[in-house]
Design a protein that fits this description.
The protein is α/β, with parallel strands linked by helices and 184 residues long. It is 17% helix and 32% strand. The protein has four helices and ten strands; from the N terminus they run βαβαββββββββαα. The chain has a five-stranded mixed sheet. Helix 3 packs antiparallel against helix 4. The radius of gyration is 16 Å and the shape is globular. Bound molecules: manganese (II) ion. Manganese (II) ion (MN) binds next to loops.
Length: 184
């Protein structure tokens, strides 16, 4: 089973990222969604589970949980926005992955058979690379494997859009440098 893992859209889900998630049989969003339409779009691809991020404070998000345990063939995927909110020792025996976001920086460690996965951000990565980031988690009995994926989009057009908008012009440069000044 292929599980698409994304986080930190903050209201922005580029068509290229949506297309890249096609084929996922299940989608998990680790919070800071931004607006409910993002979940509507994801649900056109596959059943979608989402948690509330610290920026999802509007009324539409009130019903979303802060932590979700998703039962999948092969085990459980635990989802929360900020890894700091997971208490030590709280992961159950059947957990194979803990999915989170918040920092906009992709990261992973495997600890005693559990993949801890920060999916990065599809909207605005902050790891020095502009391409939209997400994870495909391939799950099977006794075996699960994450693949970190980066998706091309028209960065020049996105930057032009920011400059034409009310947003500060430097946001365009921050997008291009992936949040690391001086990076080309
Ligand atoms: Mn956040």
């Amino acid at each position: 089973m292929l599980v698409g893992l994304i986080s930190d859209t903050h209201g922005l889900l580029r068509p290229e990222a949506l297309a890249a998630l096609q084929g996922s049989q299940l989608i998990v969003h680790a919070g800071d969604i931004g607006k409910p339409e993002i979940l509507d779009e994801l649900r056109t691809i596959a059943p979608t589970f989402a948690v509330r991020g610290n920026n999802d404070s509007q009324a539409w998000a009130a019903a979303l949980p802060e932590k979700e345990i998703v039962e999948v063939a092969g085990g459980q995927v635990w989802v929360l926005h900020q890894i700091a909110h997971l208490f030590r020792g709280a992961v159950g025996d059947r957990c194979v992955a803990v999915v989170f976001g918040h920092t906009h920086k992709p990261w992973t460690r495997a600890v005693e058979g559990v993949h801890f996965l920060n999916t990065g951000s599809v909207g605005k990565p902050k790891d020095g690379h502009w391409r939209a980031g997400y994870v495909l988690l391939s799950m099977g009995e006794g075996d699960s494997q994450p693949e970190f994926i980066r998706v091309d989009y028209d960065i020049e057009r996105a930057m032009a859009g920011i400059r034409e908008s009310e947003l500060p012009d430097e946001f365009a440069e921050q997008l291009r440098t992936g949040g690391i000044p001086g990076r080309s």
